[in-house]
Specification:
Elements (H helix, E strand, L loop, with lengths): L1 H6 L4 E5 H14 L5 E9 L2 E9 L14 H9 L5 H16 L5 E9 L7 H14 L4 E6 H4 L6 E6 L1 H9 L4 H7 L7 E4 L1 E4 L2 H8 L42 H53 L10 H4 L9 H30 L1 H4 L6
Parallel strand pairs: 1-3, 1-8, 4-5
Antiparallel strand pairs: 2-3, 2-4, 5-6, 6-7
Helix pairs in contact: 10-12
């Protein structure tokens, strides 16, 4: 049975509603600081079922460090899923869960995000640690607190692609290796469809929730004065506030983050161009030295002297090390993430503007 599960690739993720509520509460309470936790559940063929979640202990600065840097604390919080202390805490928690006979299989971890800012080295290293060391069939849940505050839940499931796992293991992110493997930044993360699961009892309970009491409820005097049940608003009725024509407040913030990601991408390109210029200068020096050595050996051959070694340039010259292209690929993936968010923000507002275009345009003068 285990072999069959390993052969079937993961195609979807099913999350219990209780897990979603726990993740939302944990991330919202610590916002804007980053929070992380681990997930437990079951692997049912091609579907990964997440049935419970537990937050990692909060990262606190050392008591002796009175002038601690907030960036260092953020880095420690981002690296919490792969720390040894949290690994021990995670194993102890799973051991306790097995004692009470509940799902205790490690199926991944979760993290909070702000306006889609989650594609970075910390997430890659954390997910690589889970897929390589703990369980290959694990996922990373990303909860965007800012997007969820608008009324629509933002919870996504990601995992690293097999091609990226192999490239990251061998640390082959040079231009030559990327060209041979045809690896692109779109192939780093694989997003899986996510479904929130409720029990039948909970679903029935939600549909029987009473509506909010009015300020002055009218008490009926007879059965004929009772309102019909179909006229009562449902507690799960659509929210008409989504029809407002105001511009999304997070659009400008996402645009600023997009510009910062583009600047980071240009910085990586400038670093690679500097490497190419340094490599060209060193290669020119090596070529000049080799030509000079060949001329010296030719003159020594005429005088029947022993020729000098021509591979001595390897000791005299040192070629610059090619920088990894991984950071640039992550920046490209982050730029794509921001661009999709801007497209999503503007699409809804633009559609509503077109719907009421006749009322917004000034009347034509006759």
């Amino acid at each position: 049975m285990a072999d069959i599960l390993k052969e079937a690739p993961l195609t979807s993720v099913q999350v219990e509603a209780l897990v979603v509520m726990k993740i939302i509460k944990h991330c919202s309470q610590s916002f804007p600081s980053m929070t992380t936790g681990f997930l437990v559940g079951m692997d049912a063929k091609s579907t990964l079922e997440i049935t419970n979640s537990f937050p990692f202990p909060a990262v606190e600065p050392p008591p002796t460090d009175t002038y601690h840097d907030s960036n260092n604390i953020s880095q420690l919080a981002a690296a919490a899923p792969r720390s040894k202390a949290n690994g021990v805490y995670q194993n102890e928690m799973i051991k306790k869960l097995r004692e009470v006979n509940v799902d205790a299989n490690n199926v991944g971890w979760y993290t909070s995000a702000n306006l889609g800012n989650f594609v970075n080295m910390n997430m890659i290293e954390n997910q690589y640690h889970y897929q390589k060391e703990l369980n290959e069939r694990t996922v990373a849940l990303v909860h965007d607190v800012s997007r969820s505050s608008q009324g629509s839940l933002s919870l996504r499931a990601f995992r690293l692609s097999p091609a990226f796992m192999l490239a990251y293991k061998e640390n082959k992110f040079t231009v030559e290796s990327l060209q041979k493997s045809s690896f692109r930044y779109q192939d780093i993360l694989l997003e899986l469809p996510l479904q929130i699961h409720n029990s039948h009892l909970l679903t029935s309970f939600l549909h029987t929730l009473p509506t909010a009491n009015t300020a002055n409820p009218k008490i009926p005097n007879s059965l004929s004065e009772l309102p019909p049940t179909h006229s009562l608003p449902s507690p799960l009725a659509p929210n008409l506030s989504t029809l407002t024509l105001s511009i999304d407040p997070f659009l400008s913030q996402t645009s600023d983050l997009l510009l910062e990601a583009i600047e980071s991408h240009h910085t990586e390109l400038n670093n690679h161009q500097y490497y190419q210029r340094s490599l060209a200068r060193e290669q020119a020096k090596i070529t000049a030295w080799q030509q000079k050595r060949k001329a010296e050996n030719a003159s020594r051959a005429l005088t029947k002297q022993t020729p000098l070694p021509e591979d001595e340039w390897q000791r005299l010259f040192k070629l610059p090390t090619e920088p990894s292209r991984l950071e640039g690929m992550l920046n490209s993936r982050q730029v794509e993430q921001y661009a999709r968010q801007v497209d999503g923000f503007t699409a809804g507002v633009t559609g509503k503007m077109f719907a009421v275009r006749s009322n917004l345009l000034p009347e034509k003068m006759e």
